[in-house]
Model the fold of this input.
Amino acid sequence: MEQPNFSYIDQLSRGDDVFKQKLLDIIKIEFPEEKAIYLKNIESRKFKEAAGNVHKLKHKISILGLEKSYVVATNFENNLIESSDLGREEFEDVLEVMTNFLSKL
Done:
């Protein structure tokens, strides 16, 4: 599975370590909250709300350089809009990889 990286963050920060750390701090705060809301909505089968959660999470997927995972998230978001949870397992695998990565920062 694709692994998170700092390539996009490094591009954004242009060598500014303070900015890079602020961005990572924001992600470390927001990601667990957004993930928890997504899990609550998906468990309640609130697919439209879960699609919105996935949309928000896609930004963090992108920032962490997960290009293939972004496609997984987009496909899953579209399925949720159509009231289908097809792709859920693959998307949640991405969330787990992100959780593990962020926990080590």
Q: What stands out?
A: Residues 13 and 20 are 5 Å apart (CA to CA). Helices lie at 7-13, 17-43, 47-63, 67-81, 88-103. The radius of gyration is 14 Å. The chain is about 80% helix and 0% strand.
